[in-house]
């Protein structure tokens, strides 16, 4: 089945998912969420793919939020709950993806759009990008994990200011806050840097990358003691794996490791 609201491409070990609904500045409606879920499944099922870039098609927007037109048509608590569960489930899948997804924020990342970027493993942005949670100006609060993921990333003070004012920050301010890892002047430079990072990751032990992502994901919702238990368990899996044996042996034999992902 093809895609209507996004573009999915694979080049070498890197998949690119570009949300593409120009008439609504790439806003997330139900169909786009469905297609995003399918693209993540395609990416994780492709043996040659090590990770993905998630971006917005065009020059103006990453994702300008949940589709406000669709939200305004929602009648009844049941439909609203189903919509909320749907969005939360797709973002949870993204956050728990066994392969890394890098958000490349090329313009407006507002509301559900910033929440989508926050569910990615890390973020790059253009200096001119606008990242914010404007829900309070619509009489709402963030509903796809924004209050929690933003607070965990930038701390309660900075998150409170962004959420309570609803005012967006640009890429440089996002960098200062720790909301994004790197800032770029052009989309080409940003996508090239994200590709290079994912190619570096593709050269590391595939099982170790998967286990590290799992440790980060599971540990992020536990207290330190519980999270350290998770880390110890997964470290045990890594050390007793074929890749763990190969990586340590290759170091001692002064050669490049040949990982098999097992
Ligand atoms: N939804 C639908 N259409 C959108 C949209 C959106 N979020 N954002 C922009 N568009 C559409 C505009 O309506 C316009 O369509 P036409 O009028 O041409 O038909 C077209 O995209 C171009 O937009 P503008 O003409 O407004 O472009 P400007 O350059 O003047 O302004 C802007 C760009 C990004 C500043 C502006 O479009 C804007 O403020 N957009 C809304 C941004 C926003 O408030 N986003 C947050 C939405 S609230 C939930 C969980 C989560 C959420 C909801 C529920 N549950 C748990 C159920 C999340 C909520 C949100 O994301």
Kindly report the spatial arrangement of strands forming the biggest sheet.
1-2-3-5-7-10
Structural class: alpha/beta
Overall mean pLDDT stands at 96
- The third-level CATH topology of the largest domain is 2-enoyl-CoA Hydratase, Chain A, domain 1
Low-confidence parts: none
The total of beta strands comes to: 10
CATH class division of the largest domain: Alpha Beta
User: Radius of gyration, Cα only, in angstroms?
Assistant: 19 Å
Determine the fraction of residues in helical runs and give it as a percent range: 40-55%
Largest sheet: 6 strands, mixed
The backbone outline, from C-alpha atoms, is: globular
**Count of helical stretches:** 11
Q: What does this protein look like?
A:
The chain has 11 helices and 10 strands. It has 2 domains: about 5-200, 2-enoyl-CoA Hydratase, Chain A, domain 1, CATH 3.90.226; about 205-250, Lyase 2-enoyl-coa Hydratase, Chain  A, domain 2 (Orthogonal Bundle). It is of the alpha/beta class and about 260 residues long. The mean pLDDT is about 95. The strands form 2 sheets. A 6-stranded mixed β-sheet has the order 1-2-3-5-7-10, with helices on both faces. A 4-stranded mixed β-sheet has the order 4-6-8-9. It has helices at about 30-45, 70-75, 75-95, 110-120, 145-155, 155-165, 170-175, 185-200, 205-220, 225-240, 240-250; strands at about 5-10, 15-20, 50-55, 60-65, 100-105, 110, 120-125, 130, 170, 180-185. Bound molecules: 4-(N,N-dimethylamino)cinnamoyl-COA. 4-(N,N-dimethylamino)cinnamoyl-COA binds next to helix 2, helix 3 and strand 6.
């Amino acid at each position: 089945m093809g895609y209507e609201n996004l573009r999915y491409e694979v080049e070498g070990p890197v998949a690119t998912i570009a949300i593409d609904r120009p008439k609504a500045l790439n806003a997330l409606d139900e169909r786009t969420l469905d297609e995003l879920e399918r693209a993540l499944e395609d990416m994780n099922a492709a043996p040659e793919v090590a990770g993905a870039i998630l971006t917005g098609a065009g020059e103006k927007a990453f994702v300008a939020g949940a589709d406000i037109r669709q939200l305004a048509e929602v009648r009844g608590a049941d439909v609203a709950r189903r919509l909320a569960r749907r969005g939360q489930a797709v973002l949870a899948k993204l956050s728990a993806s066994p392969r890394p997804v890098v958000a490349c924020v090329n313009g407006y990342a507002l509301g559900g759009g910033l929440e989508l970027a926050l569910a990615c493993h890390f973020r790059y942005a253009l200096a001119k990008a606008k990242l914010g949670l404007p829900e309070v100006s619509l009489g709402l609060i963030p509903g796809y994990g924004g209050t929690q993921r933003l607070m965990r990333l930038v701390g309660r003070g900075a998150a409170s200011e962004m959420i309570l004012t609803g005012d967006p920050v640009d890429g440089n301010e996002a960098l200062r806050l720790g909301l994004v890892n790197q800032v770029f002047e052009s989309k080409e430079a940003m996508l090239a840097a994200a590709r290079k990072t994912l190619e570096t990751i593709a050269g590391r032990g595939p099982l170790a990358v998967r286990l590290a992502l799992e440790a980060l994901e599971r540990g992020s919702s536990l207290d330190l003691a519980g999270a350290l238990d998770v880390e110890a368990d997964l470290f045990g899996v890594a050390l007793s794996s074929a890749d763990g044996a190969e990586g340590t042996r290759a170091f001692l034999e002064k050669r490049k490791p040949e990982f098999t992902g097992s």
